[in-house]
Amino acid sequence: MAETKKLMRALAGETQAVPPVWMMRQAGRYLPEYRATRAQAGDFLSLCYNPELAAEVTLQPIRRYGFDAAILFADILLVPQALGADLWFVTGEGPRLSTITSPSDFNALKPVEEIHETLSPIYETLRILTGALPAETALIGFAGAPWTVATYMIAGRGTPDQGPAHRLMAEDPATFDALMARITAATVEYLSAQIVAGAEVVKLFDSWAGSLKGDAFTRYALEPAREIIAALKARHPETPVIAFPREAGENYIGFARATGADCVALDNSVSAEWAAEHVQVDGCVQGNLAPNHMVTGGQALIDETRRIVKAFSNGPHIFNLGHGITPDANPDNVQVMIDAIRG
Ligand code: CP3
Q1: Are 287 and 322 a contacting pair, CB within 8 Å?
Q2: Residue numbers for the site described as Transition state stabilizer (predicted)?
Q3: CA 68 from centre of chain
Q4: In a domain, 22, yes or no
């Protein structure tokens, strides 16, 4: 059967007059219905591990806006938890994890085969969604890329410059490399299980790729992405992969070709005009409206949205923000963006 979902067509390389659209963090705190369901679940992690409620929050932005894709509701830090790290969220501050700073910390982690014991509710969320989504809506699964996940596992929290991870890389490369290899292998198994459960596309979030420069970018952002994509393509040749090496700058050039990704997601630090010339030449791109427009709205939101659609209009494009929508965004502005795209 010919593919009819707009998102899948873009990923197959089709140029469309009206691009498909979805948003990172589209199920999130800017939506009153999300806040209500989260309150019902108790806390964020309880929501992630409750398949019925996680499916419900995944569907909320689809009902409200008719996005072309739904993204599984979960978090990139569930993989460290499945590998045995302690994980909790401090309200107003963000995630906290037990740290990996020595060979003995690393040796206490669980083997990859055991991750599904923790992650099986996530696969159940996907199975529920495959039966609940509108026929035209694609279902996206995801995981964090090894470097980004490692930065949280090493520091035990988000860090402005990923200093602790860079330090372990320099001071104990054997432990650092072993951790990267463990996360890489776990990510292959996790994404593969998501595809089996119904994910039609998977996305790899490398939120902190921008702090890797030169050879370190090749070794710890590009190479793990290539390895994960090759392993997934061997098992699931039909499933497209979106890679998001956030703030990669010039390293966005050639990233799709080098890793085998079907689409490269762009943050808003690069201009759409530059990316059309240097990145979209290799295939589909996703992005890249600055999330702040969802807070400020107005004519600037409309103008920027149209500018990005136009800049990418000569090739395959998936409209998205350059990063996740923030809790202070106005839900009305999301509709303004969609109207500017769909005319
Ligand atoms: O995009 C989506 O809607 C899918 C679900 C999703 C979430 N997190 C839900 C979430 C995805 C894809 C993520 C990815 C994620 N999580 C990343 C990579 C992408 C990025 O944003 O750069 C990272 C670094 C994390 C780790 C994480 N989880 C952080 C730093 C936080 C923020 C803490 C805070 O309070 O703002 C989270 C929490 C989180 N993940 C929320 C959501 C909707 C907010 C939780 C809440 O309801 O309080």
Answers
A1: yes
A2: 75
A3: 16
A4: yes
Length of the chain: 343
Q: Is 120 annotated as a binding residue?
A: no
The number of domains in the chain is: 1
Q: Is the CB of 264 under 6 A from ligand 1?
A: no
At 103, is the secondary structure helix, strand, or coil?
A: helix
Within-domain flag for 298: yes
Whole-model pTM above 0.90? yes
Listed in sequence order, the residues at least 6 apart from 94 whose beta carbon sits closer than 8 Å to its beta carbon are: 157, 158
Q: Ligand 1: which of 21, 24, 25 to mutate, judged by most atoms within 8 Å of the beta carbon?
A: 25
Tell me which residue range forms the domain holding 196: 6-342
Residue 243 placed within a domain: yes
In a domain, 86, yes or no: yes
The tens place of each residue's pLDDT in the chain, 343 residues long, gives 567 999 999 999 999 999 999 999 999 999 999 999 999 999 999 999 999 999 999 999 999 999 999 999 999 999 999 999 999 999 889 999 999 999 999 999 999 999 999 999 999 999 999 999 999 999 999 999 999 999 999 999 999 999 999 999 999 999 999 999 999 999 999 999 999 999 999 999 999 999 999 999 999 999 999 999 999 999 999 999 999 999 999 999 999 999 999 999 999 999 999 999 999 999 999 999 999 999 999 999 999 999 999 999 999 999 999 999 999 999 999 999 999 999 8
